[in-house]
Here is the input.
Amino acid sequence: MRRSAVKLAIRLGAETRGTSAIEFAIVAPVFFVLVFGIVIYGAYFASLSLVNHIAYEAARATVNGLSDDERASLAEARANELIGDFSGFLHAAAITVSSGPQSDGIYAVTVQYHFDDLGLSGLTLLPLPPSNETATYAVSHGGY
Here is the structure.
């Protein structure tokens, strides 16, 4: 009886069928978490870059305004134009644009984006980025 147990152990130790499936079962979850993490953070950083770009361009457009009302309409128009251009990547309903005088001679534009639309709130394996990001740019009215 002992001899048959030793033969069985030797036979099972020499068997290599199925090792690829076991290795895949061990490595695949880690690999897929890494890949999905790269995709999620790539989308997050691309969105964040676009939000910064929208805020910068909207603030830059306010330089031509003569009054705060005109600056606000210029900022809103430029931001809406860019939001339309990036509608394939950003959700327009999740973007909030606000603008106003920050101090004497300085006008600021703030763009806030809510990343909840990415549908990542249910994921618990990955450390997720913040759900709201804000970009603010301030420009001078012009002149000296």
Q: What stands out?
A: The beta strands are 95-103, 106-114, 132-140.
